[in-house]
Amino acid sequence: MNAKVLFFDLDDTLYPSTSGLWTEIRIRIDRYMEERLKIAPEQISHLRQHLFHTYGTTLRGLQALYEVDPMDYLAYVHNVHLPDFISPNHQDRETLLALPQKKYIFTNADIHHATRVLKTLNLFDCFDGIVDILQIMPNCKPQDEAFQIALKHAGNPDPKHCILIDDMLFNLQAAHKLGFGTIQVSQQAPNTASGVDAHIQKISELSRVISAPGL
Questions:
Q1: CB 82 within 8 A of CB 117
Q2: Nearest-CA neighbor of 66 among 95, 41, 34?
Q3: Number of alpha helices (DSSP H) and beta strands (DSSP E) in the chain
Q4: Do 185 and 165 touch, CB atoms closer than 8 A?
Q5: Number of domains the chain contains
Q6: What angle, rounded to 10 degrees, do the helices at 70-77 and 21-35 form?
Q7: What is each CA distance from 135 to 5, 37, 132, 148, 215, in whole angstroms?
Q8: Is 52 inside any structural domain?
């Protein structure tokens, strides 16, 4: 593949999933559901997982079932002191700067959270733009409509010349069906499921796989 555009997920992709940041955000999601929506604590974990797998994000599910202000939700769940969990990685930065392709963040989080994460990681200037949940609402990854909006934001490149770098299998599989190349970022063993073209454990390994056969 002659890749021209790279779309990067944000959380658990640009930093290790072992950082604890997403765990903290998930705790705040549970707290929001209890404090703001008065959902019984013993129901929250099951409901959150159901909403995530059914609607793509917990927020989208809560909007379908409750009167939830998305801006209030996003501000609440992302109210985390990021340096407690993530920090810059020089190798990741050098890798991203060396890649000649256009690079976009494509996230189900909002632009405020994405900007804070990128600045904390010292990666903000490595990207050409951010496609966030506010731009793709009422859709989200892994919906086809979300990918079409992301492509439009990037100048409507042919999906066959695009690669999605993401930690979530169902996002990668959705992108693959549209013609994207796909790279999964995970500290676990490589995923052999269909829809994943390559596997890396950290962003600094991208240059090793970005021009591999099949990508």
A1: yes
A2: 34
A3: 10, 6
A4: yes
A5: 2
A6: 130
A7: 19, 25, 6, 11, 28
A8: yes
Give the residue from 30, 58, 77 where a domain finishes.
77
- pLDDT at position 116 is 98
Is it true that the peptide bond before 138 is cis, omega within 30 degrees of 0?
Answer: yes
Residue with tokens 């690669």: 163
Q: What secondary structure does DSSP assign to 18-45, as a single string?
A: GGSHHHHHHHHHHHHHHHTT---HHHHH
Please give the sequence-ordered ranges of beta strands (E in DSSP) within 44-136, or none if there are none. Answer: 102-106, 129-131
pLDDT of the chain, 215 residues: tens digit per residue: 589 999 999 999 999 999 999 999 999 999 999 999 999 999 999 999 999 999 989 999 999 999 899 999 999 999 999 999 999 999 999 999 999 999 999 999 999 999 999 999 999 999 999 999 999 999 999 999 999 999 999 999 999 999 999 999 999 999 999 999 999 999 887 767 789 999 999 999 999 898 766 67
Domain extent at residue 121:
5-17+87-209
Of 142, 140, 162, 143, the closest CA to residue 151 belongs to 162
Q: In terms of domains, do 70 and 99 share one?
A: no
